[in-house]
Amino acid sequence: DTLAPTLAEGTWDYAFIDGNHQGRATQGYVERVSRSAAPGALLVLDDIDYNDGMRAAWDSVRQRPDVAASAVVGKIGLLALR
């Protein structure tokens, strides 16, 4: 409910996503948030190994052309955007 109005406020440098633990939803969050990202923004995804859908979503989002680098720290996925 709050994502769209928050993203409409301007660009961001950092976002932490910990919400719907379904692969498609996670991919949608990354898509929406990345459109409002400042160059070099950091996107943090929680529970990337929660289930098969989340693992597949992580494999997909880290290969996006707007991702400069990715890393895994425990159950957290880090995406550095271009």
Task: Kindly describe this structure.
- There is one protein chain.
- Helix 2 (23-35) runs parallel beside helix 3 (52-61).
- The protein has a 4-stranded mixed beta sheet with strand order 1-2-4-3, covered by helices on one side.
- It has helices at 3-7, 23-35, 52-61, and strands spanning 12-17, 37-45, 67-73, 76-81.
- It is globular, with a radius of gyration of 12 Å.
- It has 82 residues and is of the alpha+beta class.
- Strand 3 and strand 4 (76-81) form a beta hairpin.
- The chain has 3 helices and 4 strands.
- It starts with a helix and ends with a strand.
- The mean pLDDT is 96.
- Class inferred from helices and paired strands: alpha+beta
Count of distinct strands: 4
The ordered H/E elements are HEHEHEE
Major sheet characteristics: 4 strands, mixed
Oligomer: single chain
Tell me what portion of residues adopts beta-strand conformation.
25-35%
Over the alpha carbons, how many angstroms does the gyration radius reach? 12 Å
Helix content: 25-40%
- The shape is globular
Termini separation? 27 Å
Task: Indicate the low-confidence ranges by residue numbers.
Answer: none
- What is the mean predicted local confidence, pLDDT? 96
Give me the side-by-side strand order of the main sheet: 1-2-4-3
Helical region count? 3
